[in-house]
Structure formats: C-alpha cells, structure tokens
Design brief:
18 strands; about 475 residues; alpha/beta; FAD/NAD(P)-binding domain; about 35% helix; 18 helices; 6-stranded parallel β-sheet; Rossmann fold; globular
C-alpha cells in the first residue's frame, strides 16, 4: 500500500482541549479529509479532558460544559484515545515517529510560574496550581491540604486567582454538591480561613479577570467582596483600555460596584480585592509564613505603574501564588526555557532554524499559557494548516509501520495498562453512580488505580 493510499496517521500527545480541538480540525480539514485521517490521542492521565477535568474549579459547571463539545469529537470513529500513557517513559519520540506521519504536542501548562521575591519558599507559601490540582482530585498530587490559616493571600489578578480565592472563601458544604471527592470535602470542612486577600500590583483596568468570574465571587451568601475605594483609579492608558475593550470596561465597572456598595449582611467570610499593591516579600517566623509585605504603586499615565516607596505589612498565614502557569520540558523536544514554549513557527516545531520533520505543537505549550480555553481552537487550525501543507508537499515523516494495530501491539508488549474511550464511558458512569448515591451529579475518583479499575470492562466497582 502506497503512503497516500492509506489514511494520514497522526499522534496527538495531550488529550486536553488543545489536543481534542486539533483532532477536530484535522477531521474538518478539506485537504486532509480527501485522503482520510486516523488519529491517536495520547494522554498521561487515565481520563481525558486535561485542564477541564483537573484545572477548572468544581463550582464552574458552565465551563465544564465544554466537555460536551469535546465528547462529540472523541466519539468520532477516526479518533482513538490511549490514556494512562506517559510520553518519554511509556512511549518515546522514536516510537511515535515509527508509527505516525505527524506528531502534535499539546501538553499544555501545569507547573506554577516562579515568583522571585524573598521568603517565597517559606512553609505556607504555595503554588496555586498545586492547590487547584488538590481540590480537583488530581491523582498525582497530595490527598491532604493544610488549611490552618485564618487570613490568606492570593497573589495575582487572573481567573485562576479568583478560583483559588473563591474556593478558599466558600464553606465545604457549599462545594459538596459539586463533583469534589471525599478527601477534598473533608479538607475544606476544616478550612479555617475567614479572610482572603487578593493582591494585584496594577489597577482595575489592568486586571485579567473575566466579568462572569468576577461576578461569581458575590454569588455565595457566605462571602462579602470588599474593594477599597482608594483603589479605584485610572490614568489615560487605563481610559483607553476601557474604551477599546468591552471586557476591560465591564471588569472595571464590577470592581467599582464592589467598592461603593453597602456591607453584605450575613456573610461570614470576607474576600478583599487589593489593587496597586505589589508583593515584595513574604514575611516569616520559624520558617513559616506570618505575613506579606507589599509596596504601594501608582499609575504612570500609560496604564503601567511605578513604585511609591510606601510599604504595608499584612498579617497573613498562607500565600497562594497565582502568577501564571509554566509548561513542562518534554523529552527529546526542543524547549525555550525563557518563554516556556516549544520553539515553533505557526505550529511547526523548529530546532536550530530547521523544522523537525513531522513534528508540530498546539495550545499553551505552543504560545504560552494565556487566553481562554476556546482560544486554542485558533492554534489548532493554524497547526493543522501546516500539517495539510506538508502532506501535500510530501514533507511529513515517513513511518516504518503506520498500521493502527502496531501501536496497540507495542503498548501490550510493554505491559502498559492503557485506557480507551470506551473505558472513559465506564469511568464516567462509575463516577455518576457514586454521585447519585449522595444526590449529586458526580463524585470524582481520585486514585489512579481506582480510575484504571473503573475503566476496565466487566468489573464490579466498590466505593
């Protein structure tokens, strides 16, 4: 069989939104569809959906509803899910090049970006990503979380910071109706936080929140959102930003409304949004966090800020750093440590100025961890255009064995317990049954071995 008489074989490493959107774009490409395509989605976790399952707060069913659209893509016969497979350990780049015309890396960004200030390594200073992984039941993270501090700081003014602040400010019982596993509920029930302080070094017009997320802070009867009226300030650059962006203007308006309203009756927790406070040092005693020092800033006319020299010490018992995510360096793949991305041009992976034949990237590891989930659709379309162009030009990889069964034989020969799309249906049903027993839609399974067991056919599952 000639190369062009069989479907194009593509491996996508990472079955989160970016990888699934890429699979969808491949199937919708007119150029690729003329030949046909067969796609294998490799996923390190036993379950698909990446950031949606392990990076979105459990009380955000609207965002988790994106899974419905992703589900339809994975239901397509041209797509095969191969889960619980770690790239670089279970399968290598050489393995994939032997079996595929093209390999796309869409592994996202899960590590916390560093915050370079004194004291940041003290006990009680945490990366927000670690906390998110805990409350989302990620099997590779701790089952417990220290929630002893009564006053907590969150550094950052993006949606992740809002998620962390909101989860810390809510009660365990408020979050129980969601899909949180038992260990997370028990942990949140013991949470002692009564004040949560969110710090940003710039003003309301520079915050990276989305309006809906910002409004949701106030939906809980237990949370009073507080903004100091002195933090409502705009310069010419801020005014231009509000005038040219509806979202920026909406965010600023919501913050203004928080600043001028009357105290909320009955709220037992206070959530402060602080602007123009730049964290400069984490304060500690006996190796533990006891406070946060910030320096007051002021606008410089352009929307940026300059220091004023005035500092404030805040009594804080725990700090969560939500200053951005960072992608992992993948084995055998070039990586720009400064930018935190795979070097690429429009999705083609480059090394020393040359395109690495048959290798591509999409999503956050392609362009950095910025933007909303839907923005990765544009990344996928651009990358797929490159794959289609290289297919037409005959410049893709030439695999030794492009048969679909060859990959399964390889995994089985190595004794790798991989999961499938059919296995996800079984795990999904198992989690729904666990939730239904408690009047909930779902209860997430945390342990990897339990996820694998629930994914297998003809197994009686225990709680």
């Amino acid at each position: 069989m000639s190369e062009n008489s069989r479907p194009l074989r593509v491996a996508i490493v990472g079955a989160g939104p970016a990888g699934i959107y890429c699979a969808d774009a491949l199937m919708k490409s007119e150029t690729v569809s003329e030949r046909g395509v067969s796609i294998d989605l490799y996923e390190r976790m036993p379950a698909p959906f990446g950031l949606i399952r392990y990076g979105v707060a459990p009380d955000h069913p609207r965002i988790k509803g994106i899974i419905t659209a992703l589900h339809k893509v994975l239901d397509k016969p041209a797509v095969r899910l191969l889960g619980n497979i770690d790239f670089g350990t279970d399968v290598t780049l050489d393995d994939l090049k032997k079996h595929y015309d093209a390999v796309v890396f869409s592994t996202g960004a899960t590590d916390d970006r560093a915050l370079e200030i004194p004291g940041v390594d003290l006990d009680g200073s945490y990366g927000a990503g670690e906390f998110v992984a805990w409350y989302d039941g990620h099997p590779d993270f701790s089952r417990t979380w220290p929630l002893e501090a009564e006053k907590v700081a969150v550094i950052g003014v993006g949606n992740v910071a809002l998620d962390v602040a909101r989860v810390l400010a809510k009660t365990g019982d408020e979050l129980l109706p969601t899909e949180i596993p038992d260990n997370v509920y028990q942990g949140l029930k013991q949470n002692k936080a009564v004040e949560v302080h969110v710090f940003g070094r710039r003003g309301p017009a520079q915050a990276k929140f989305t309006p809906l997320e910002l409004k949701e802070l106030d939906h809980s009867p237990n949370i009073e959102v507080i903004v100091n009226p002195e933090d409502i300030d705009y310069d010419e650059g801020s005014t231009v930003a509000r005038r040219t962006s509806k979202i920026t203007d909406q965010v600023a308006q919501i913050i203004e409304n928080y600043a001028i309203r009357e105290p909320k009756q009955g709220a037992i927790h206070k959530l402060f949004l602080h602007f123009f406070e730049n964290p400069v040092e984490v304060l500690g005693e006996d190796g533990k966090v006891v406070g946060l020092r910030t320096e007051r800033t002021e606008l410089d006319g352009t929307g940026n800020v300059k220091p004023t020299g005035k500092t404030t010490d805040w009594e804080i018992g725990a700090i969560y750093r939500a200053v951005g995510y960072l992608s992992d360096n993948l084995p055998g793949i070039p990586f720009d440590n400064q930018a935190g991305v795979i070097p690429n041009e429009a999705g083609r992976i480059f090394d020393d100025g040359a395109h690495l034949t048959g290798l591509y990237t999409t999503g956050w590891i392609k362009r950095g961890p910025v933007g909303l989930i839907g923005h990765t659709k544009g990344d996928a379309n651009e990358t797929v255009e490159c794959i289609a162009e290289d297919m037409v030009n005959g410049t893709l990889n030439t695999p030794e064995d492009a048969g679909e069964d060859a990959v399964i034989a390889l995994l089985e020969s190595r004794g790798i317990p991989f999961t499938t799309w059919e296995g996800w249906y079984r795990l999904d049903e198992h989690e729904r049954q666990l939730g239904a027993a408690e009047g909930r839609e779902r209860k997430k399974v945390v342990e990897r071995h339990d996820m694998l067991a629930a994914s297998e056919p003809d197994k009686v599952q225990s709680n």
